[in-house]
Specification:
The protein is an alpha/beta fold. It has 13 helices and 18 strands. It has 3 domains: 115 residues, 3-Layer(aba) Sandwich (Rossmann fold); 230 residues, tm_1862 like domain (pyruvate-formate lyase- activating enzyme); 57 residues, Beta Barrel (OB fold (Dihydrolipoamide Acetyltransferase, E2P)). Strand 14 and strand 15 form a beta hairpin. The chain is globular, with a radius of gyration of 22 Å. It starts with a strand and ends with a strand.
C-alpha cells in the first residue's frame, strides 16, 4: 500500500517517523508525498502539552475531513501511547492506533488494516511483547540530508512534577554504545555532516547500564569510530549532570559544537522545589561559569516555564533577574500546561491564563533584547555555516549556535551549495538571526 507520514512534535518523534518510513518501505509499501495519493495516512502525534495535543488533533481532524472511504487514518506516537483507545473519542475517524513504544511494529499494523475494515473500534496490535531493544531494526536512511538526530536513550526516571513524559515513554533505557556508533557511521557515510544526540535526558545516558557507559565516553568513542563526522551537537542535558568530564570532553574535541541545551525551567528555588527540580541556583550559576570558562564562545540554550502553580509576582521577577544576569544565547519560554495525571495538576494556586500570557510576553521581550545584544557581538566576525536552502541570490543556514527549528538562522547574500559548509562574514544582526556575505 501507499502511505503518507506526518511528523509532529520534537526531534525524538522525527527519529521514530523516519524509522516507520524505512520499515514500511522495507515491507514493500510505497511512500506517497501527498495524502491524496496514499491508502494509509499516518500521523505521528505529540502528547506532551495542551498546544501539542491540539495540533495533533487538528491534523487528524483535517485529514479525516478529506479522507476517502478507501483510505485508513492511523494515529501513532505519544498521544496515541498516552490515551490508547480513548483516541477514538476525540478523533472518531481514526482507523488504527499505535503508541510510541511499538512504532517498530508499524508494518504489522498496516498489514492488518484491510482485515479490520468491518469493525467499528480502531485497529490496535495484540497485547505488547516484552520491551524490545532500542536498536533500529534496519539501517537508517537520510538521503540528501546534512543533519540527523540520533536517539541515544528513551524514557525518563526524572521526578518533575509537571511532566507526563514518564507516563508516555516509561523509564530510562539507554541504547548500547556499539549500536549508536554503527548508526552514526551509517548516517555519515550517506553524507550527513551534523549528528545531534537526543534523549529525554542525554546526560542520563548509561545510568541504567550500571555506569559502564556515560555520555562523555560515548562522545569520545563516536569521534574515534567516525572520524569523518564534522559536527556533533548535544540536546536536552540535565543541569545537575553537567560533569567536569563532560565539560572537558566538549572543550577538547573540535567536532563537538560549543553549544549546550540546558533546560532549567525556573530560577526561583521555591518554584523549583514545587517542580521537583534541582533548586540549587548557585550550583547552576557555577556550572554555567565552568562552561563559559572552558569554552568562551559557547552558546547556551535553556527553557523556562512561567505561570507554574503558586508562582508569585516576586518569584517571576527573580526569573527575569536571572535571565538578565545569565544572558543565555537562546531561550524558550513556555506557559505552564496543566497535565492530567501529574503531581503539579493537583497543586493549589493555579495561575490564571491571562497572567501566564502576560508573564510570557514580559520574559520574551527581555530575552529578545539579550539575544539581539548577543547577536550584535558577531558583526564583523566570520562563522562557519551549514547551508540548508538557497534561491533568488539568498541562502540560509545554521551556525554552531543554532539547533534546527528551535534557534535562529544565518541569511547569506549569495546562492551557495546546499548541505555544504560556508565561511560567512556577519554584517547585520537581528533578534534571532544573523545576516552576512560569503567570506
Amino acid at each position: 500500500m501507499r502511505f503518507h507520514l506526518v511528523s509532529l512534535g520534537c526531534p525524538k518523534n522525527t527519529v521514530e517517523t523516519e524509522g516507520m518510513r524505512e520499515l514500511l518501505l522495507a515491507a514493500g509499501h510505497q511512500l506517497a508525498r501527498r495524502p491524496q495519493d496514499a491508502e494509509v495516512l499516518i500521523v505521528n502525534t505529540c502528547g506532551f502539552i495542551d498546544s501539542a495535543r491540539e495540533e495533533s488533533l487538528d491534523v487528524l481532524r483535517d485529514l479525516a475531513d478529506v479522507k476517502r472511504p478507501d483510505q485508513y487514518l492511523v494515529a501513532a506516537g505519544c498521544m496515541a501511547e498516552r490515551y490508547g483507545s480513548a483516541m477514538a473519542e476525540v478523533a472518531p475517524s481514526v482507523d488504527a492506533i499505535i503508541g510510541t513504544r511499538r512504532w517498530k511494529e508499524i508494518a504489522n499494523l498496516v498489514d492488518a488494516l484491510p482485515r479490520h475494515l468491518e469493525t467499528t473500534a480502531p485497529c490496535q496490535l495484540p497485547q505488547p511483547l516484552p520491551e524490545r531493544s532500542l536498536v533500529h531494526p534496519i539501517p537508517r536512511s537520510c538521503p540528501g540530508r546534512a543533519t540527523a538526530y540520533v536517539k541515544i536513550a528513551e524514557g525518563c526516571d526524572g521526578p518533575c512534577a509537571f511532566c507526563a513524559i514518564p507516563q508516555i515513554k516509561g523509564p530510562l533505557r539507554s541504547k548500547p554504545g556499539e549500536a549508536i556508533l554503527t548508526e552514526v557511521g551509517e548516517l555519515v557515510h550517506q553524507g550527513v555532516k551534523e549528528i545531534i544526540f537526543i534523549a529525554q535526558d542525554t546526560t542520563a545516558y548509561g545510568l541504567d547500564l550500571g555506569g559502564q557507559e556515560t555520555l562523555p565516553s560515548l562522545i569520545t568513542q563516536t569521534l574515534a569510530a567516525v572520524p569523518d563526522l564534522s559536527w556533533l551537537r548535544l540536546m536536552y542535558t540535565y543541569p545537575q549532570r553537567i560533569t567536569p568530564q563532560l565539560v572537558e570532553t566538549m572543550a577538547s574535541h573540535p567536532e563537538v559544537l560549543h553549544y549546550l541545551d540546558l533546560p532549567l525551567q525556573h530560577s526561583d528555588p521555591e518554584v523549583l522545589r514545587r517542580m521537583n527540580r534541582p533548586h540549587d541556583i548557585d550550583h547552576i550559576r557555577s556550572t554555567i561559569a565552568d562552561l563559559r570558562q572552558a569554552m568562551p564562545d559557547i552558546a547556551l540554550r535553556t527553557s523556562f516555564i512561567v505561570g507554574y502553580p503558586g508562582e508569585t509576582e516576586g518569584e517571576f521577577r527573580k526569573l527575569l533577574d536571572f535571565l538578565d544576569e545569565t544572558a543565555f544565547d537562546r531561550v524558550g519560554i513556555f506557559t505552564y500546561s496543566r497535565e492530567e495525571g501529574t503531581e503539579a495538576s493537583l497543586l493549589p494556586g493555579q495561575v490564571p491564563q491571562e497572567v501566564k500570557q502576560e508573564r510570557y510576553q514580559r520574559a520574551m521581550a527581555l530575552q529578545q533584547e539579550i539575544s539581539l545584544a548577543k547577536n550584535r557581538q558577531f558583526i564583523g566576525r566570520r562563522v562557519q555555516v551549514l547551508v540548508e536552502g538557497t534561491g533568488d541570490d539568498i541562502s540560509v543556514g545554521r551556525s554552531y549556535r543554532d539547533a534546527p527549528e528551535v534557534d535562529g538562522m544565518v541569511i547569506i547574500h549569495d546562492e551557495l551549495p546546499v548541505n555544504e559548509f560556508a565561511l560567512v562574514r556577519i554584517t547585520e544582526a537581528l533578534e534571532y538571526d544573523l545576516i552576512g556575505t560569503l567570506g
